[in-house]
Every structure is written in C-alpha cells, then in structure tokens.
Amino acid sequence: MAIIYTVFFLIVYCSLVYGKCQIHQDDESTQNVYKNMEKWKIFGNNLTVFSNGSTFSVGICSSPYNATDVAAIIQKESNVSYVLGNLDRVNLIQGDKWILLTYENGDSYDNVCNNLTRSASIMFVCGSNMTGLTILQAHTTSNHQCNYMFQLQVPDMCPIVEKDDKLSGGAIFLIVIGSLAAAYLVLGAVYMHVKHGARGIEHIPNLGMWRKIGGLAADGCDFCCRCERTSPHAGYFFDELGPDVRDDDILSP
Ligand SMILES: *[C@@H]1O[C@H](CO)[C@@H](O)[C@H](O)[C@H]1NC(C)=O
Ligand SMILES: *[C@@H]1O[C@H](CO)[C@@H](O)[C@H](O)[C@H]1NC(C)=O
Ligand SMILES: *[C@@H]1O[C@H](CO)[C@@H](O)[C@H](O)[C@H]1NC(C)=O
Ligand SMILES: *[C@@H]1O[C@H](CO)[C@@H](O)[C@H](O)[C@H]1NC(C)=O
Ligand SMILES: *[C@@H]1O[C@H](CO)[C@@H](O)[C@H](O)[C@H]1NC(C)=O
Ligand SMILES: *[C@@H]1O[C@H](CO)[C@@H](O)[C@H](O)[C@H]1NC(C)=O
C-alpha cells in the first residue's frame, strides 16, 4: 500500500515540477486559482518585454527556455542575465479583480538588497491584450527597488456580463402604451368612417380634443423657448379654454 502511495505521490509531484508551476498539494485555495488559470490557455506562452536595456522573457507557469527548465522569468542585460524566479517556488493569490502569481528563489542580488534571492510577480487583470506585458517595477541599473512586478491583461479576468433577455418594466410599459394608442387610432378611425362617414384627417378620433392639446403644447413651447419675446400676452394659456379660433385658422384648409 505504501508503495502505491509513494508512486502516486511521485507521479503527481513530478508532473507539477517540470514545465509547470509547482503548487502545494495541500493548499486548496491556491490549487483552485491554479485550476482556473489553466482554462485561460496561457501556460506555455512565451512573453517578451523590453525596457531600458533589459529584456525580460516571461513564462506563465512554464519556462521561457525549455520545458525541462525551472527558470520562470529571465532578465537579460547587455551581457549578463538573471533568473528572476523559479517554477518550483510559486505563490498564487486571488483578490477581487486580480490574481497575483509570484515566482521566488531566483538568482541572488549582488551586494544590494541584502543579497536576497530575486523574486518576480505577475498581476493578472481584466483586459483583452494577452500578449502585451507591462512592467510595473523592475530592478535595473537605474532602478534600485528590490522587486519585479509585471501586469498582464486576461479576458477571463473580466466580470461575466449577464445578458438580460427579459424586457425591463419601462420597455413593457412603452409597448403597452404604444399598442393602446395604435388600437385607439385604428378602431377610432374605423368607427369614424363607418358611423360618421369621415374622410381624410377627420378619421382621427376626438380630433377636436387633440387639436386643443396640440395647441396647448405649441403654446407651452412658445412660452418656454422663445425667450426673445418681450411681452407674452397675458392669459395666453387660458384663451384656449374659450372657442379655439387660432388653431382652426391654422388647420382649416
Ligand atoms: C534608463 O537607464 C538610464 C541609465 O541606465 C537612466 O538614466 C534612465 O532614467 C532610464 N530610463 C528609464 C525610463 O528608466
Ligand atoms: C522565448 O523567447 C525568448 C526570447 O525571445 C527565446 O530566447 C526563447 O527561445 C523562447 N522560448 C520558447 C520556448 O519559445
Ligand atoms: C533545457 O533545460 C535543461 C535543464 O535545465 C538544460 O540543461 C538545457 O540546456 C536547456 N536547453 C536549452 C535549449 O535551453
Ligand atoms: C560585460 O560585463 C562586464 C562586467 O560584468 C563589463 O566590464 C563589460 O563592459 C560588459 N560588456 C558590455 C559590452 O556591456
Ligand atoms: C553580500 O555578499 C557579498 C559577497 O558576495 C558580501 O561581501 C556582502 O557582505 C554581502 N552583503 C550582505 C548585506 O550580506
Ligand atoms: C498589446 O500591448 C502591446 C504592448 O503594450 C502593444 O504593443 C500592442 O499593440 C497591444 N495590442 C493590442 C491589440 O492592443
């Protein structure tokens, strides 16, 4: 039994060491983040970014060199190159809108940064440019921060937009009103035609009332918009309540 376990463990362990990020088997949240990232189909991509004399070759849970190497990110300056982190020392953190992948245990700094080993992080954020890696921070001859940070856009990090097939309340309201108006016009026109033998514009039901409302609306526009008018004549609105002379003048043939 122990042998089977050992063999099983070795298979799992080895498959994770080479060409992939090595995640601790007992860290469930990290494992879940890793499984989600596998769906991005980004592992094995070889991203290169150039900045001020340094070229960075960045592997996403893969080595930019070859499948059996553990170096995850390589920085090349004019004639030196450093490994910035290894696939066998990986940390994954997921926040609300980002995932942070950190490779540790790279080459040591020389006489700076307490001679610590280099480590580098890639921040995955929502976006569509999966090839354009951005350098947010990098230790170079001109930048003495003891850190490397890259940012990469991944479409899968974007929030899922749920398509709402249902009509909104407002749309339903407008459709109902529109249908009622159409039915009113059609039925009214038929009624006017059959009952009163209407012709032309007379087909519109309650024509007189609509004319009055149209007149009021026009007056409203006049009153509100024509600011240059110096003396709006008094009782203008209320004139409409009396016999409607002006509109009849306009509308009658
Ligand atoms: C590039 O490096 C030079 C010196 O190596 C430095 O003067 C310059 O500010 C750097 N530029 C950027 C954008 O970091
Ligand atoms: C990744 O890119 C670097 C730099 O362009 C190159 O040297 C290396 O061979 C590439 N690796 C793979 C696996 O394509
Ligand atoms: C691939 O990786 C192995 C192990 O690190 C190394 O010995 C070999 O030189 C690498 N091959 C290339 C082409 O980089
Ligand atoms: C290569 O590095 C050495 C020291 O590591 C330096 O003296 C030399 O000038 C560098 N050569 C180039 C071409 O940058
Ligand atoms: C870093 O390493 C060098 C030797 O490579 C040593 O002389 C120096 O004291 C070390 N610095 C620190 C802060 O440990
Ligand atoms: C992606 O980013 C790179 C580098 O920032 C840029 O050169 C490239 O044009 C971008 N591609 C798209 C489709 O935006």
What features would you describe in this structure?
- The chain has 253 residues and is α+β, with helices and mostly antiparallel strands.
- It has an eight-stranded mixed β-sheet with strand order 1-2-3-4-5-6-8-7.
- The protein has five helices and eight strands; from the N terminus they run ααββββββββααα.
- The chain has helices at 2-17, 28-38, 169-196, 207-225, 246-251; strands at residues 46-51, 54-59, 71-76, 81-94, 99-105, 120-126, 134-137, 148-154.
- The longest helix has 28 residues, at 169-196.
- A hairpin with a 2-residue loop joins strand 1 and strand 2 (54-59).
- Helices cover 32% and strands 23% of the residues.
- The protein folds into two domains: 2-157, Mannose-6-phosphate receptor binding domain (Cation-dependent Mannose-6-phosphate Receptor, Chain A); 169-251, no CATH class.
- One 2-acetamido-2-deoxy-beta-D-glucopyranose is lined by residues 65-66, 68-69.
- One 2-acetamido-2-deoxy-beta-D-glucopyranose (NAG) binds next to loops.
- Its main location: membrane.
- Residues 1-19 form the signal peptide.
